[in-house]
Backbone:
C-alpha cells in the first residue's frame, strides 16, 4: 500500500473517531463551542435539505437547536419544622420521708388522694416527745413564776439586780427548751411539702421507719414538663417562650399547645444535641408523668430553588444546570444543598420564572435559542418570552 493511501486511511479513521467523540462523548459539544466550532446535533438541518428548520437564532447567526424538555424551577423550604420525642414529668414532684425514726402509728392518705401543702399524711409514735413537751412547758411556767417573785423582791430591795438577771435568763432558756420540745413533737407528724396527687404508698401503718424510708410520693401535675433533645443546628432558633405543639403517643388524636420553658446552656458533646424543656397545661388531668410525647415546632426555615434531578449536570468546575431565560440557554453553576426523592435543592441565582433543561441537554449551547419538544417528540418553535415548563415534562 502506497504512502498516500496510508495517509488517507489514517485521516479517515481520525475523522470517524472525531465524529464519534463529538456525537457521544459527554461535554463534547461544550468543548467544541469553546473552540469556536458549532458542529453537532444542535446544528442539524431539517431532512438534510440544506434549509434551516426555522428562523436563524443564536449569536453569530447560529442555527436553532434541537428540541429539549424543560421543567419550571420551584421553591422549597427546609429546616422549617422540628419533630422530636420527649418524656413528660410532673411540674413538681417530691418523695416524702420522715425527719426522725420511729413506728408509724397512723397513715392518713391513700393512693390517689389529693393533698394541699402542709396537710398531715402520717404520724409516728410520739409519747416520749409529748412528755418532753409537757415537761418543758411546766419548766417555763416555773421559770416565769420565779422571775415574778424576784422582780417583786427587787422592788423592795430584798433581791439584787443579779438575781433578776439570772431569773430572766432562766425564763429564756425555758422558752427555748419548750420550742425544741414542740419541734420534736411536730416532726412526729409527717406533712405534705407540696400540693398534688399521692402515688402508691410503699408502707403501711405499724411499720418502723427511718429518715431514709419513703412514706409517699406526691406529684403536682397541673402542668407537665416535657424534656426533649434537638439537633444542634436549631440551637440558635429555639428560645424560652417559643410555641410548640405536643401530642401524647398514648393519645394520638389529641394535640396540646405549649411553650418552651427552659433551654440548656450547652450542647451535649457526645450526641450533638441540645436539651430543651417544654411546659404543657394539664388542667384536665389527662396526662401523667412518664408519658412519651411527640413534639413539633415550626420555624421560618431556609428557602432554596428546587430543580428536577435530571437537570443537574456535572462539569470540570462542579455542578450546573441549563436555565432557559427569554428563550435562550444559560449555564448556571449550582451548589447542591439537599437531595430529595423528586427534587434537588440548590444554592444558585435561579428564579421561579426560570425553567431548566431536563432532556435534550446535548443539544443546548450557551446563549443559543432553545427549541422545546412537543408531545409527539417533534421540535416545536423556538421558546421566547417567560420560560414555562414544556408539556409532557
Residues:
Amino acid at each position: 500500500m502506497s504512502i498516500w493511501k496510508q495517509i488517507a486511511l489514517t485521516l479517515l479513521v481520525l475523522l470517524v473517531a472525531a465524529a464519534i467523540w463529538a456525537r457521544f462523548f459527554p461535554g463534547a459539544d461544550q468543548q467544541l463551542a469553546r473552540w469556536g466550532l458549532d458542529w453537532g446535533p444542535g446544528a442539524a438541518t431539517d431532512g438534510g435539505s440544506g434549509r434551516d428548520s426555522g428562523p436563524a437564532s443564536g449569536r453569530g447567526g447560529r442555527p436553532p437547536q434541537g428540541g429539549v424538555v424543560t421543567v419550571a424551577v420551584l421553591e422549597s423550604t427546609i429546616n422549617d419544622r422540628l419533630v422530636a420525642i420527649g418524656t413528660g414529668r410532673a411540674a413538681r414532684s417530691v418523695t416524702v420521708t420522715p425527719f426522725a425514726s420511729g413506728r408509724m402509728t397512723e397513715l392518713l392518705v391513700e393512693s390517689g388522694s389529693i393533698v394541699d401543702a402542709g396537710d398531715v399524711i402520717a404520724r409516728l409514735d410520739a409519747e416520749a416527745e409529748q412528755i418532753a413537751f409537757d415537761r418543758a412547758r411546766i419548766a417555763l411556767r416555773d421559770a416565769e413564776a420565779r422571775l415574778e417573785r424576784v422582780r417583786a423582791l427587787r422592788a423592795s430591795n430584798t433581791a439584787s439586780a443579779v438575781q433578776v438577771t439570772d431569773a430572766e435568763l432562766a425564763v429564756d432558756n425555758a422558752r427555748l427548751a419548750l420550742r425544741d420540745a414542740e419541734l420534736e413533737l411536730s416532726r412526729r407528724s409527717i406533712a405534705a411539702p407540696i400540693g398534688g396527687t399521692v402515688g402508691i404508698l410503699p408502707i403501711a401503718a405499724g411499720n418502723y421507719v427511718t429518715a431514709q424510708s419513703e412514706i409517699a410520693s406526691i406529684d403536682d401535675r397541673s402542668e407537665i414538663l416535657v424534656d426533649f433533645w434537638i439537633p444542634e443546628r436549631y440551637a440558635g432558633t429555639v428560645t424560652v417562650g417559643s410555641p410548640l405543639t405536643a401530642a401524647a403517643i398514648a393519645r394520638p388524636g389529641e394535640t396540646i399547645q405549649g411553650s418552651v420553658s427552659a433551654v440548656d446552656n450547652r450542647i451535649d458533646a457526645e450526641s450533638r444535641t441540645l436539651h430543651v424543656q417544654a411546659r404543657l397545661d394539664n388542667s384536665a388531668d389527662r396526662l401523667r408523668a412518664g408519658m412519651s410525647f411527640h413534639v413539633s415546632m415550626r420555624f421560618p426555615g431556609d428557602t432554596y430553588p428546587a430543580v428536577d434531578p435530571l437537570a443537574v449536570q456535572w462539569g470540570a468546575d462542579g455542578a450546573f444546570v441549563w436555565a432557559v431565560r427569554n428563550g435562550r440557554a444559560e449555564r448556571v453553576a449550582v451548589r447542591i444543598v439537599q437531595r430529595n426523592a423528586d427534587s434537588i435543592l440548590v444554592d444558585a441565582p435561579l428564579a421561579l420564572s426560570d425553567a431548566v433543561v431536563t432532556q435534550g441537554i446535548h443539544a443546548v449551547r450557551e446563549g443559543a435559542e432553545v427549541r422545546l419538544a412537543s408531545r409527539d417528540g417533534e421540535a416545536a418553535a423556538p421558546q421566547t418570552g417567560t420560560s414555562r415548563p414544556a408539556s409532557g415534562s
About this structure: Residues 196 and 220 are 4 Å apart (CA to CA). The first helix runs from residue 3 to 24.
